[in-house]
Amino acid sequence: MAPRINTRDRIAQASLELFNAQGERSVTTNHIAAHLGISPGNLYYHYRNKQAIIAELFAAYERHVDQFLRVPEGRALTVDDKLYYLEALLAAMWHYRFLHRDLEHLLDSDPELAANYRSFAQRALLNAKAIYRGFVEAGILLMDETQLDALTLNAWIILTSWVRYLCTTREFSGDLSEAQLRRGLYQVLALESGHIAPAAREAVAAVFDRLYVPLEE
């Protein structure tokens, strides 16, 4: 028998579902309480306001990314690792897509969250660059240090702005689709296309094929 989820965790899970489906700005604490069939007072007993719920969801997202965005110990990176990192990023972005949907608004609304996000961004960029350097050391990418800096930053810009790109260039009656997010990962992979070592091109091409999703007209 599965353990019963406590009320605090139920509130966080329901909030994540509603934020993802409708956008954080469209969801109030009253909406969350009604969705769960609890009183607003019960919700406020666990979270003082909506920002506290968002902060907890961001902390969970941050912990999740920190777990996989790292260089493996004791072995060289492979092309399979490239697919692993991109698929893991897709899963994280999809599960917490509301964070990317209106990031500037969320950070403007909560200075403490903004400070935490800056620390997370700096750490993620360092870890991502170490991973890219690992692909260079493994003979999969051919790049110098300046190119590594540029690739890491460009990849970050695409990943963190892709959801907003979709929302501002297409009409949505509801939620985004996972396929639309997957195309963002293809765009990141495309940044490397001119730097792939000849011996790795065939294997990397298979990763390209797996991530490719046509852009909707």
Automatic annotation (TrEMBL):
The keyword Plastid does not apply. Residues 5-65 form the HTH tetR-type domain. PROSITE patterns: HTH_TETR_2. Keywords: DNA-binding. SUPFAM superfamilies: Homeodomain-like. The keyword Signal does not apply. This is TetR/AcrR family transcriptional regulator.
